[in-house]
Queue: 2 jobs
Job 1
Amino acid sequence: MASLPLISASSISVKSDTKTLLDNVSLSVGTGEIVTIIGPNGGGKTTLIKSLLGLNKISSGSITRHSSLKVGYVPQKLAIDRTLPLTVKRLMTLTERNNIADIKAAMEETGVAHKFHDSIHTLSGGEMQRVLLARALVRRPNLLVLDEPVQGVDYVGELSLYRLIEEIRDRHQCGILLVSHDLHMVMRASNHVICLNTHICCAGKPAYVEQSQDYQQLFGQKSMQTMAPYPHHHNHSHAPQDNDILEESCSCGHAHEESGETSHKGELS
């Protein structure tokens, strides 16, 4: 018998004034899988994440969380005043009383243990993202929610971070919900991909999604062939499931008006 999903959404919609930010969206994330949400700016990706985390009120539908769910969250961007003197150590203990040994172990895993006493303002983009990832890991979550985790990171750093995320999944067997608008490099590391533009345009395994007309219209027909240096390699197999079949390309006639979605700065959790 299959285990229950860590978190699932059933036909959720989010409206703000007269605008529809999410329309009839369903998804689930299980143990040991990476579910990736891709889509254009303003397509509702961050709105979906905030709704799943309970930070946004949904207008309809339902969200179910496993009774043992423990979430580690890396926000899209963490706004910190540059005049505020803040070390990595202080950031890691700011809102939770975590054991120093556990913090250092998490930072060792993400490759930034040597930055423990440094000011956060001296970190590169990649180092900061690794610190935030360690901060999420120290809680020992069974679900990691990563909202565009490669922001401010160069090309080589992106590849390294994506490999690290996959290694974390394999090592801890946690579920990972990963969000991006530019995911050519990591799509093949995902078990399931959802292409979101207010509603779900297409969904399924990466190989199916890349062939979808909706995906090709949003990202370019040759994007996967020209910008996919990170293939998915692992030693386990994914048996076909009913929900692995590509959903029909979007012919529902949705009018995609700009949602006005703003960039989520992220709360310290």
Job 2
Amino acid sequence: MTVATDEIYEKYLQKAITEINALGDEVVQAGGGARVPVVGSGHPLADVMLLKYAPRPSELQEGVAFFGRSGNAILKSLQRLHVDPMAIYGTNCLKFADGPEEESRPFLLRELHIVAPKLIVVMGEQALAFLNGLGFPLGQALQAKEGERQSFTPTIEALVTPDIDASLDEQAEKTRFWNAFKPLGAWWESLPPY
């Protein structure tokens, strides 16, 4: 008996939803009720994972990564590039504003395994250093080459950009971010249709 591709995808999707929800629950428990956790958001089997270093006040208020100015800027950029925002997952390296890096590494490792993106957009030097220090299986150290696609693993590429949060107030920094981010559009167009 053959199983339709849609059925297989639905099974993977349900598994990913269950795992990402369980991970979110664990992040909340790690906060112990005293710290506000910020969890990732988006499609649990996204083609693209957006990764920035730490949560901002608006993200802490809502408990969701990429909430507020950075999320709005990313959404506008995705629209300009004709990239489906429903195929994106965004998260922070640090899950708490005041937590040590060591605490958040296992959470990000699991997020990467669950989402299994085809491309990670690494936003800023701190996010790049965090990802490079993660010890992801078959992961290669990424260079700080803004706007150039690099191989992170045999199945995952990476695109390094400036930190979106630091790029929103000055026009020169907005332009720098945009120039590094826009190769995502060409990459997206090159994907085979589903």
